[in-house]
Specification:
Bound molecules: ligand BES, zinc ion
Structural class: alpha+beta
Radius of gyration: 28 Å
Largest sheet: 8 strands, mixed
Number of strands: 31
Shape: globular
Strand content: 15-25%
Low-confidence stretches: none
Number of helices: 25
């Protein structure tokens, strides 16, 4: 495939020359069918072996397909096909294909963007070697980039130049990329494990180039990690990253030319929070890791998307785990999985990790394909062990390097390389819904046994094969420990009896067992258990299930696990369970109250309250004294989000009441823990004084603890002055955002809050990324003052800082409102829902992918009380009656399903 691009001002003219031959066995009469988006791409000509084809007589274009009749093709052998097209990248507001972002030409071809450039078999199993020549104006586009190696530069006179790139690796067109513009660049290098030197370059707008250093370091760490953990060495002499402001997604793994949303590249002490730094490192890793899992081995078709995405998310998670705190990363990932993927799985949008059908593949870059897909890969890892997993992974490459394959091929490699029976793990690819796992433990004092009966149930879901009777028991790895009265893990010495043919694997110290549940119900009996243990079940969250334990662990048992469990994940889980049960009781009590005020909620009379507060205060003090990992502490002390509580208690939940109950909980907690919180804050500040800013473990976890303390104190009404001082004194974005967040904690801080918000906007208005932080916070706070939420939102949209065409700004503002502003979005007059619908409609006309990504809050209507269900369904009906893009139509029509 040889591509020639002429980029002239606002116009692009292309000539695509490909060598094609009829596959063996394909009938002589079969036509050649190419994809092409006729509404965007103007066809200038089609030639076979140099001869122009005549429209209608020799080819036809219908429904975005070009069909070249068999008579127009040679009877046998290879032929040359030339397709010439023309289009206007500036008019490409969908940001799919070739478009312009801040004056720079750039591409996004996954999944089906290449068809907006030229007519081509736009499917991942059609692979070719691409050569790309770009011709452009020297002044407007001094930088000309594509995949692979630069093989030729030409000066064409007339202030024009050309660059020709050749990528020696065969690839599908979704991995094609082109960038042309006036960009600045930083360069470094990486020496691979075999001693080859790779040039690393990061391109960004001139004004941003001094914020690319952290991304460069992240890339080097990722390259090294993939060599060490998976033995994978980079396979070209050049690796480029380009940061652009207008991008629908986070980043894209185009071969040797990754294109990134600038928010995931640019970072400095002043502009980025610690969370952003960590996110940048993991996304740089993710896209780099695709070079093998995605590019060298790609997907046969888009149903296999999780083959590359689930696997690569697992790899980027492990990258972060290996470089930072494993437990804290695992906790954060599970928190996200439960809050977001479990919610998707419980909604009408539920689908299996390998979907059965789709209208627009863009809609299937979902939490299920990504996060549940990564959990599925993690289950292989848990079941086969690190070495067994690596054997399977190596076999996968031995068999399939250079091919376009399926999740079945991955499964077979894993299974063939190991002796463990994992057959029923495969069902996780085809069955939607989060399994419920019940664990019932019985201790027999006389027999000295602990018998654990595990039962799995798969819920019915709305996808094609979603009926409950279609669902079969899956292989679920359940990691278990038994904690003795001394607080130590009991040794599970070999003698474990279980029903059926499933087995149990012990870790080296024999303190954790992985039970392989393969039937609906099985009992695992541990022998030689001399005293009644407290069970620690699903250690490390060994499977993405909803666990219930019977008999329910008491508050004292949970506190015991919180203090003693050797599994840091389950220690965190214990703290969450106590907080959750207090919150659930309060939410249930107040759910139906139509006029609930925060002050009506009294959590302090809950039977577990005093013990919980006591334990947390102890943890705060230990963290302050440096006796506990502060980053873990921040997780352990944070209580479940409102959205999580709503999900737990659905259906029939009044979201605004849930929000008020949670606020009251935080406020009460802060009042009781005030002295400890203030001491934590003072200690953190004292430690930081005079220290040069670094993004390293100790500093990041100190800032996390400090932020937690500040946020909690912010819920108290008389600390506005202190918070506003903290805002002004902040020397980095983490502290700045912590102060702003804390200022939102109580209405009494309104004056200080508004001043700080104005100051922040004034400072960052012209920064396309940092201003999104303001948009997100402003959206979450809309309606907190005297102006109605929706009116405030409209006022924000009218400001210069907002740009409806920029996905980051749209996601920040609308996502910040629908996801972060409970009283505003769920206002009981329906105004929040109507507002979001209006914005979805106007965005859909500009950028269907972006609109559709913000539509999922409406798919959650079933969670809420009758009144809100009615209001949300009315908006869904209104949207359905409008003229929608296929993208938004698919989401809205599915969201309607009962
Ligand atoms: N291949 C995707 C980017 C993509 C997604 C392109 C959807 C076209 C449509 C990329 O590897 C990716 O997964 N990016 C994520 C970030 C990642 C760290 C999970 C993204 O863009 O959100
Ligand atoms: Zn990816």
């Amino acid at each position: 495939m040889s591509l020639n691009f002429e980029l002239d001002g606002d116009e692009a003219t292309t000539r695509a020359t490909s060598k094609i031959s009829r596959r063996e066995g394909v009938d002589r009469s079969a036509p050649l069918v190419l994809n092409g988006k006729a509404s965007f791409v103007e066809l200038l000509g089609v030639y076979v072996n140099g001869k122009a084809l005549v429209n209608e007589a020799e080819f036809a274009i219908e429904n975005d397909l070009m069909t070249i009749k068999s008579d127009a093709l040679p009877a046998s052998g290879a032929f040359t096909l030339v397709v010439e097209t023309k289009f206007q990248p500036v008019k490409n507001t969908e940001l799919s294909g070739l478009y312009k972002s801040s004056g720079t030409f750039c591409t996004q071809c996954e999944a089906e963007g290449f068809r907006s450039i030229t007519y081509y078999p736009d499917r991942p199993d059609v692979m070719s070697i691409f050569t790309t020549r770009i011709v452009a104006d020297k002044t407007q586009c001094p930088v000309l980039l594509s995949n692979g190696n630069l093989i030729k530069s030409e000066d064409l006179g007339n202030n024009k130049h050309a660059a020709t790139w050749m990528d020696p690796w065969r690839k599908p067109c979704y991995l094609f990329a082109l960038v042309a513009g006036d960009l600045a660049m930083i360069e470094d290098k990486f020496v691979t494990m075999s001693g080859r030197e790779v040039a690393l370059r990061i391109y960004a707008q001139h004004k941003n180039i001094d914020r690319c250093g952290f991304a460069m370091g992240s890339l080097q760490r990722a390259m090294k990690w993939d060599e060490e953990r998976f033995g994978l060495e980079y396979d070209l002499d050049l690796f480029n990253i380009v940061a652009v402001d207008d991008f629908n997604m986070g980043a894209m793994e185009n071969k040797s030319l990754n294109i990134f949303n600038s928010r995931l590249v640019l970072a400095s002490q002043e502009s980025a929070t610690d969370a952003t730094f960590e996110r940048i490192e993991s996304v740089i890793g993710h896209e780099y890791f695709h070079n093998y899992t995605g590019n060298r081995i790609t997907c046969r078709d888009w149903f296999q998307l999780s083959l590359k995405e689930g696997l690569t998310v697992f790899r980027d998670q492990e990258f972060t785990c290996d470089l930072h705190s494993r437990a804290v990363k695992r906790i954060a990932d599970v928190r996200y999985l439960r809050a977001a993927q479990f919610a998707e799985d419980a909604s009408p949008l539920a689908h299996p990790v390998r979907p059965e059908s789709y209208q627009k593949i863009d809609n299937f870059y979902t939490l299920t394909v990504y996060e549940k897909g990564a959990e599925l890969i993690r289950m292989y890892h848990t079941l086969l062990g690190r070495e067994g997993f690596r054997k399977g992974f190596d076999l996968y490459f031995e068999r399939h390097d250079g091919q376009a394959v399926t999740t079945d091929d991955f499964f077979r490699a894993m299974s063939d390389a190991n002796s463990t029976d994992i057959e029923k793990l495969k069902l996780w690819y085809s069955q939607a819904g989060t399994p419920a796992l019940e664990a019932a433990g019985v201790y027999d004092e006389v027999a000295k046994t602990y018998a654990l009966t595990l039962t799995q149930t798969l819920p019915k879901t709305n996808d094609v094969n979603g009926a409950a009777e279609n669902k079969k028991p899956q292989l679920i790895p359940v990691s278990i420990g038994l904690v003795g009265a001394d607080g130590k893990d009991m040794v599970l010495s070999g003698e474990i009896k279980c029903e059926g043919d499933s087995k149990v694997t012990l870790n080296d110290s024999k303190t954790t067992a992985v039970c392989r549940l393969t039937d609906k119900k099985q009992t695992f009996t541990f022998k030689g258990i001399n005293s009644k243990p407290v069970p620690s079940i699903l250690r490390g969250f060994s499977a993405p299930v909803k666990l219930t334990i019977t008999p329910e662990l008491t508050t004292d048992e949970l506190l015991f696990l919180l203090a003693n469990d050797s599994d840091e994940f389950n220690r965190w889980e214990a703290s969450q369970k106590i907080a959750t049960s207090i919150l659930h009781r309060a939410c249930r009590k107040h759910n139906a109250n139509e006029s609930l005020e925060e002050s009506d909620v009294n959590v302090t009379s809950d039977p577990s309250w005093a013990k919980y507060v006591d334990a947390c205060r102890g943890i705060i003090r230990d963290a302050t004294a440096g006796k506990l990992d502060r980053a873990w502490v921040e997780e352990a002390l944070s209580f479940p989000a409102t959205t999580q509580l709503i999900q737990d208690l659905a259906p029939g939940v009044n979201p605004v009441n849930t929000y008020k109950v949670r606020k009251a909980f935080a406020h009460s907690f802060a009042l009781e823990a005030r002295a400890d919180l203030e001491a934590a804050l003072a200690t953190c500040d004292a430690e930081a004084a005079g220290l040069a800013y670094e993004v390293d473990g100790p500093q990041v976890s100190r800032r996390a603890l400090r932020g937690y303390a500040l946020r909690m104190l912010g819920t108290i009404g008389d600390v506005g002055g202190m918070l506003s001082t903290a805002y002004s004194a902040a020397q980095n974005m983490t502290d700045t955002v912590a102060a702003l967040g804390a200022l939102c904690g109580h209405d009494n801080h309104a004056t200080h809050k508004n001043a700080a918000f104005d100051d922040f906007l004034h400072k960052w208005e012209d920064d396309n990324n940092v201003s999104c932080t303001w948009l997100r916070m402003a959206a979450a706070e809309a309606g907190a003052g005297d102006i109605a939420a929706v009116d405030e939102m409209k006022a924000i949209m009218a400001r210069a800082v907002y740009d409806a065409k920029n996905p980051n700004k749209f996601y920040s503002l609308i996502g910040g409102f629908a996801g972060g502003n409970v009283p505003g979005f769920h206002a009981d007059d329906g105004s929040g829902y109507a507002f979001v619908s209006d914005v979805l409609l106007s965005t859909d006309a500009i950028n269907p992918q972006a609109a559709s990504r913000m539509a999922s809050p409406f798919a959650k209507w079933r969670l809420y009380d009758d009144k809100r269900q009615g209001l949300m369904k009315a908006q869904l009906q209104r949207l359905l009656a409008a003229k929608l893009s296929p993208n938004l139509f698919e989401i809205i029509s599915k969201a309607m399903q009962d």
